[in-house]
Amino acid sequence: RKGFVKIGLANGASLVPVFSFGENDLFDQVPNPQGSKIRKIQIKIQKRLGYATPFFRGRGIFQYAVGFLPNRHAIDTYVGEPIHLPKLSRDKITPEI
């Protein structure tokens, strides 16, 4: 996940920080109270895969009630100034970086 910084250091590239707000509002999670069929299905999937998978819904192409497209919601994205990295040789890049 953080290997892109090491690649940037090895190549002397500039890193541009980017952060977005509002992605969590693009899809709705299907309600899954204790004891419901959806919860039981999720538990079975979790036992098989090792992680829980949420069931979600968005909007459809021609109707807005149910579908797999994201809901129409603004996403605010902030782009920072580039961070210029020095070019380091690969032998100087340690695991601590």
What does this 3D model show about the protein?
The chain has helices spanning 3-11, 37-49; strands at 14-15, 18-21, 28-29, 56-57, 76-79, 83-84. With 97 residues, the protein is α+β, with helices and mostly antiparallel strands. The protein folds into 2 domains: 1-17 and 80-97, no CATH class; 24-75, no CATH class. It has a two-stranded antiparallel ribbon with strand order 1-6. The longest helix has 13 residues, at 37-49. The model has no long low-confidence stretch (mean pLDDT 88).
Radius of gyration: 21 Å
- State mean pLDDT (0 to 100 scale): 88
How many individual helices? Answer: 2
Estimated structural class:
alpha+beta
Please give the structural blueprint.
Elements: H1 3-11, E1 14-15, E2 18-21, E3 28-29, H2 37-49, E4 56-57, E5 76-79, E6 83-84
Antiparallel strand pairs: 1-6, 2-5, 3-4
Provide the descriptors you would attach to this structure in a database record.
transferase; two-stranded antiparallel ribbon; glycerol metabolism; diacylglycerol O-acyltransferase activity; elongated; 23% helix; membrane; 2 helices; 97 residues; alpha+beta; acyltransferase; two-stranded antiparallel sheet
Short description:
By secondary structure, this protein is of the alpha+beta class. The chain has two helices and six strands.
